[in-house]
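Input.
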Amino acid sequence: MPLIKIKRLAWIATFATLSGAALPAAAEVSFTDRSQALPLRQSYEGEWNHYVGGGVAVLDCNDDGLPDFFAAGGAAPSRLFVNTSGKSGDISFAEHLIASLSEVTGAYPIDIDGDDILDLVVLQDGPNTLLRGAGQCNFTAAPTAWGFQAGSEWTTSFSATFEAGQSWPTLAFGNYVDETNPDGPFEACDKNYLLRPAARSFGPRIPLEPGFCALSMLFSDWQRNGVPDLRVSNDRQYYVRNGREQMWHMTPLAEYTEAEGWPVMKLWGMGIASRDITGDGLPEVVLTSMGDQTLQLNMGKGVMKNAPYATGTYSSVPYNGDDGRASTGWHAEFGDINNDGRDDLFIAKGNVEQMPSNAIHDPNNLLIQQADGSFVEKGGVTGVGTTERSRGAAVVDLNKDGLLDLLVVNRRAPLEIWQNTTAEAGHWLAIDLRDAGPNSRAIGAFVELRLPDGRIQTQEHTVGGGHASGEASPLHFGLGAAEQVELRVIWPDGQTSDWARTATNLILRVSRDARPTLLLAEEP
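Output.
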């Protein structure tokens, strides 16, 4: 079995080897408020058309290994913040000027043209914007030759994939209420659209009908058959009676049906989080809503089953205070907060505005997974369970210390930054994928890590999900006491690398060569 040779990038963090002693069952999680790291107030503002949205896009736009972010402002300015955190581990950011964009609801990073520089898809109430990355956190308008059609809808969700045999990505845009419909807003949901490749550009927009006020979309190979499908989570608040959650086949383009085992499911759907948390290699999903935050277990063969209530993820009402009304969940994201080898779950929550049916002071959830697979609430004791009207978020290592931090976008309140200061956390590994050709970031790949006890952790590399928020950052694995693991990648075209042994507590940039084998980028 080959050993991965560590040829470090200039920015790869190195850490002292932890002792081989067994870790505690779960390190006590702690966070420190670093919101003052921003040079100015950033918040998501606006009236009715900005009750939804409020996303954040995380990307390393200057290739220094530190994640930067673009935050939607709605009716207020949207801003790009460059990470200036130093070797001391402190977190800091500086504003970087970017094209002035109005009515921004969210954003997602993706390399459209395969030049290995991340571009930025910006969602707006009105024509969406596609910005081409020019390096050093600079962006220009997408070239006309790309054929990008912005539309004029109120866009609130996005996902992307590379379909088999294509040299250009497929983009999916989810739209909310049709503001031009005089009979709206109820039952006036707009169409969603696909942009599919036409060689190295986009062809005409393809409508996805019916649309039911989409608030989250995710391309995922959820069946592990090599073909991604498009899941769409929809807001029942506006489709009212005749809508449903949706899963779309891409070829032929059609919704899954009950005859295929896809039951009719109605939610006040807000966000989608996806991760294999059972260890069988199949991704589960959490669907946030106004009420239950539903965890669906992937049973295989195209069947999803709601997890038992005792799992602890439903989080239907606030866990503190005296407001017993239903919660409103928005962005959800998995990540191993204490690196114990079990993925945890963060859920951003907040009332739409002053909706009387739902809790007004609705704390964010930090659900820590236990050894038996159940989840325990830690939002209150860690301080991250704030009660602003939270919307988008990101779970990401901001300072390369191997601990996942939090960014939280709030409606009419300042953006929050929470530094993970958990002591005695476990080992970890972060995988930064690269691939030759147009799909430079290997969207659609699966990364597997095999631990010494034989357990396998699996992550799918996707673009989409969450609520109006996307990340292009290394895939983070918590590994508990493991000081070495075995790694392999199932690449988007189905090729599978050999298992290779690697040390832990590293950020690895992994690519494949013609054979294909696992490589690390050379030091500049």
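The longest strand covers residues 389-396.
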